[in-house]
Amino acid sequence: MSEVATAVPTGTWVLDPSHTEIGFTVRHLVSKVRGKFEEFESTVVVAENVADSKASATIGLASINTGTPDRDKHIRSNDFFGVEENATMAFEATGIKEDGEDYIVTGDLTIKNVTKAVELEVELLGVGSDPWGGTRVGFEAETDISRKDWGIDFNIPVQGQKLMIGDKVSIKITAEAVLQA
Predict the structure, then answer these.
(1) What is the band of 161 on the pLDDT scale with cuts at 50, 70, 90?
(2) Which CATH superfamily does the domain covering 3-179 fall into?
(3) Cα separations in angstroms, 89 against 39, 73, 128
(4) Which single residue of 88, 126, 176, 177 could bond 19 by disulfide (Cβ 3.0 to 4.6 Å)?
């Protein structure tokens, strides 16, 4: 087992919402739109054997924030998430393996009742004590998905064959988790 894997104590870890951001970037016309989700819960159970570890997350789709209220309202509509019928998206890890000093986490991502496999590249940023007597781990995770794979295919044609919104969504999670006593 590598030095990084043994640096994360076994046990149950819960994301600290005030030190975590679940963000995304998607192409829009000639630039990119960035946003984040402000309501989420996640638990990671680190086992002695990294492959036996578990991770799950639930994200409130209505909590989307792109910095533009009208755009956020549209994304909550049936054109995109349909939050009235689909309040959350969920992730459940199906495999965790070491990749040098980092990790690859495979899992099932469910959005709008569609479940697809995704792979997250996870970089461990560090483990340490906090001023309140707790233990924290910091990490970043990234993946790219096709929004069409989840039936989120609203778009507006512009300039012939071009579309207003890109299909690829880049997801980046920057997080701190706290070891539960």
Answers:
(1) confident
(2) Lipid/polyisoprenoid-binding, YceI-like (2.40.128.110)
(3) 11, 17, 30
(4) 176
